[in-house]
From TrEMBL:
Bias (Acidic residues): 52-75
Source species: Aquisalinus luteolus
Superkingdom of source: Bacteria
Identification of the protein by name: DUF305 domain-containing protein
Signal peptide: 1-25
Length: 277
């Protein structure tokens, strides 16, 4: 991850935005282009993972074969074909990356944050953003955040831009609509896929996937507020239990992460509480 960030700072924001496979993060870096398309369903099939399918550089950072320290390097957008995902699902997916990136930036981890925050701006993730302009997407906000990251500015200096990014994502989410139960199921399935890839032999082996999974839990919690009043509070409580399996307020990989089975079991509890069609 450190090497990746240095490359960005050396080549400038423009280079970061054109989507070179060696520089960008999360899917697309030997990810989106090489993933096997999966139809948009409530239960995505398990995938090889973001960061594990020969991501490019092999260092373990974002976009590099297996994501070690802090970047995402997914080998295929959690197994999803962005051209077949519905707009609400794609927006939820991108929102998870943005949430992870903003939290890491605020936690003083800009190198870990940077790859996640490329999703709204890089050419590599363009398919992820298809149709978002009609919802009021403001790319210039995210470009300013990426520029600040490149310049090495602390999050405290650009807090207004970070809040603006959050507000833009929230506004698009409201306009995109979608069934909150369906979106939460999609996110819970994706959490399981991501977290399964992130943990090997009881340790975080793919930091980007670990961080992505956290971001998707955050987004699921937001959607739970739109559930029917008689179940919303209960679902939010269970999502908070799931979120507590990531220590702290940002998904910085710990020495002893929660077991995959524990995360998987709690996602099942959440999905059982959701209404069925």
């Amino acid at each position: 991850m450190k090497n990746t960030f240095k490359k960005w700072t050396g080549l400038g924001l423009t280079a970061a935005l054109v989507g070179s496979t060696a520089l960008v993060a999360c899917s697309g870096e030997n990810g989106e282009a090489g993933e096997a398309p999966v139809e948009d369903t409530a239960s995505p099939t398990p995938f090889a993972g973001e960061g594990e399918m020969g991501e490019g550089e092999g260092e373990g950072g974002e976009g590099e074969g297996g994501e070690g320290e802090g970047g995402e390097g997914e080998g295929g957008e959690a197994g999803h074909d962005m051209t077949t995902l519905s707009v609400p699902h794609r927006l939820a997916f991108m929102s998870g990356h943005v949430q992870a990136g903003l939290a890491l930036y605020r936690a003083g981890e800009p190198e870990m944050a940077a790859p996640h925050l490329l999703h709204p701006v890089s050419e590599t993730h363009q398919a992820e953003r298809a149709g978002l302009d009609e919802l009021g997407f403001q790319p210039e906000i995210f470009e300013s955040v990426s520029q600040a990251l490149e310049e090495g500015r602390p999050a405290s200096e650009i807090e207004p831009q970070l809040r603006a990014a959050e507000e833009n994502m929230a506004m698009m989410g409201e306009k995109a609509g979608g069934d909150p139960s369906d979106i939460i199921r999609f996110l819970m399935d994706t959490v399981v896929d991501e977290y399964t890839v992130a943990i090997t032999d009881g340790a975080v082996s793919d930091a980007g996937e670990y961080q992505d999974a956290w971001g998707f839990v955050i987004v699921a919690r937001d959607h739970a507020a739109s559930l029917p009043a008689d179940i919303s509070a209960d679902v939010i409580s269970e999502i908070d239990t799931l979120l507590a399996l990531w220590p702290g307020t940002a998904p910085v990989p710990p020495a002893e992460p929660a077991p995959v089975g524990q995360v998987t079991a709690q996602t099942s509890v959440i999905m059982l509480k959701l209404p069925r069609d």
